[in-house]
Backbone:
């Protein structure tokens, strides 16, 4: 796993994170009814390249696109398509990774498309809260599952279920590194977090049951009950008293 103790390396990972953050902010504005997920993908690849980065997902284990565009019941790894056109009332989770200066950054956001239902709004709000509280636990001296438990506790409190088929991960000089960061776990368990450790924390929260199915394309993961799912993620660096959000 990557632990950053060098100021120059910290600056490099911040640059990769800044591209991800700015791109997601723009995509939140572009996610409108009538826009295809393929159009969002094409914009994203061009934006990353123009800013000196490389799309981290494209070609990774054969994945064909720059972003994952997961609409409504799609949990993660939705492949962008000209045929998938956003409609008013949809929610879309966009996951994107960037490599720059030898370091990776990875983040996801769930955006409303036009006017969404009250329950969809609540799902998005709660999933973002799960991420925020999990990040707050990622400080040196805490245990890894303190992060995990924060997600599980909020999801259970709100009557939703955390996805267990996919987890967050370490990140740094590779897109996926140890340790795995589950969205459930017992507080006080797991490895001790060290200052400078890079983590991609990513709660995926389902409106219904946590079970997922993988579609025939081998990538797209959907909720087994076809209810909505939301996804938020940030790449963070563990600090002594506070975690630095890099994306």
Residues:
């Amino acid at each position: 796993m990557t632990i950053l103790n060098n100021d120059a390396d910290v600056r490099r990972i911040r640059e990769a994170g800044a591209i991800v953050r700015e791109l997601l902010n723009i995509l939140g504005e572009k996610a409108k009814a009538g826009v295809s997920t393929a159009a969002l993908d094409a914009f994203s690849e061009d934006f990353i390249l123009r800013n000196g980065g490389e799309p981290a997902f494209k070609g990774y284990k054969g994945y064909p696109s720059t972003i994952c565009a997961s609409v409504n019941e799609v949990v993660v790894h939705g492949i962008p398509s000209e045929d998938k056109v956003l409609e008013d009332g949809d929610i879309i989770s966009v996951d994107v990774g960037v490599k720059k200066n030898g370091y990776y950054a990875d983040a996801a956001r769930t955006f409303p498309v036009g006017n969404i239902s009250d329950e969809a709004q609540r799902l998005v709000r709660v999933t973002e809260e799960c991420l925020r509280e999990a990040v707050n636990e990622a400080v040196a001296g805490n245990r890894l599952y303190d992060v995990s438990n924060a997600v599980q506790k909020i999801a259970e409190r709100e009557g939703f279920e955390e996805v267990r088929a996919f987890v967050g991960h370490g990140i740094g000089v590779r897109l996926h590194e140890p340790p795995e960061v589950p969205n459930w776990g017992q507080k006080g368990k797991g490895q001790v977090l060290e200052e400078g450790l890079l983590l991609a924390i990513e709660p995926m929260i389902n409106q219904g049951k946590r079970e997922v199915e993988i579609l025939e394309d081998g990538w797209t993961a959907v909720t087994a009950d076809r209810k909505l799912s939301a996804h938020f993620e940030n790449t963070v660096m563990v600090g002594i008293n506070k975690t630095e959000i890099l994306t």
User: Anything to note?
Assistant: Residues 7-245 form a domain with the Creatine Amidinohydrolase fold (CATH 3.90.230.10). The first helix runs from residue 7 to 30. The chain has a mean pLDDT of 97. The longest strand covers residues 91-100.
